[in-house]
Model the fold of this input.
Amino acid sequence: LPISSITLRRLNMKLKNPFTTSFGTMQTKGFFIIEAADDDGHKGFGESVAFSSPWYTEETVETTKHMIKDFLINIIRANKIQHPSEVRDLFKPVKRNNMAKAAVEGAIWDLYSKQQDITLAQALGGTKQTIEVGISLGIQPTVDELLKKISRHVEEGYKRIKIKIKPGWDYDVLKEVRKNFPDTQIMADANSAYTLDDIDHLRKLDELNLMMIEQPLAHDDIIDHAKLQSVIETPVCLDESIHSADDARKAIELKSCQIINVKIGRVGGLAEAKAIHDLCHEHGINIWCGGMLEAGVGRAHNIALTTLPQFTMPGDTAGSSLYWEKDIIRPEVTVQDGIIPIPDKPGIGYTIDKEALESFTVEKEIFPI
Ligand code: OSB
Ligand code: MG
Done:
């Protein structure tokens, strides 16, 4: 797998709408686009997903840069790689920093697929021709605004609506949503806003027929989640708590969750995501592909991963235009009736809009390999 250079580009893009979770509000997104190139003109792209502040996990845009520049690129330089699935083991000596690892590994997967003239979905062993997606709605200023947004996206055909919750914006809001949308697939994501002291309150959600509640308890917990799952009917889905296939194995064994949200960045790359997929397939655990408010490159990677069969539930990869005035890929990701067709061009299957990429770039560094 010849690689001649890795380019690190830092971009700043402004979200169309601020996105509010239980841990805070985001409006500008800083991230890296990693470009891995060979001498034959192939270029593979990866996107980093850490936010500017360590509120979701401990990684940030700055830690991503430090890891890539000072450790990960050296590892790529020092090793011959035959297949992108080897990158995961090469990166093992670096503890955690999964989002930094995934950005580099993703660029190499895309480069490899283009060298082989196959799609990234094929390189991963994906089989679906289309994928189903839902949308994640941040905490809104009023319940009325939330209901309006849900109406719009239900009409657009999104397959499920995820609603961010926190103490004070949970049961009453969801009850109102359920009343207005009795037949819509609804789920809630708490981003770790609760503790076991809230069991009685969380148990009330059982009457609302939610698809699942995502990450209700601490970001690093799988024990309390098992206690919670044993006393509520609503399926628990883990997001923040799962960083690897080993974490997934332990959570399944402890019955900490019935569903797992797989994010490529959070688990350290596509090879680890696939390992979690295979494990969950074996154990009959439903999974879906989460989102990190990605630009087009990250979105394209999510789409390719979701072609694997155990992604049985709609993911968070909504259309580009819901997040950005202008995305960095062509065509942009568009969603019709909640469905995205899988592109058939090699690699991620979308081309980079060089002009758009340049216009959002605030830093660029090229590393020869
Ligand atoms: O927990 O899934 C999450 C956004 C930012 C941080 C964490 C999360 C989210 C989302 C939005 O839910 C996913 C998306 O639309 O990309
Ligand atoms: Mg989540």
Q: What stands out?
A: The longest helix spans residues 98-116. The radius of gyration is 20 Å. The chain is about 35% helix and 20% strand. The pocket of magnesium ion (ligand 2) is lined by residues 189, 191, 214-215, 239, 261, 290 (CB under 6 Å).
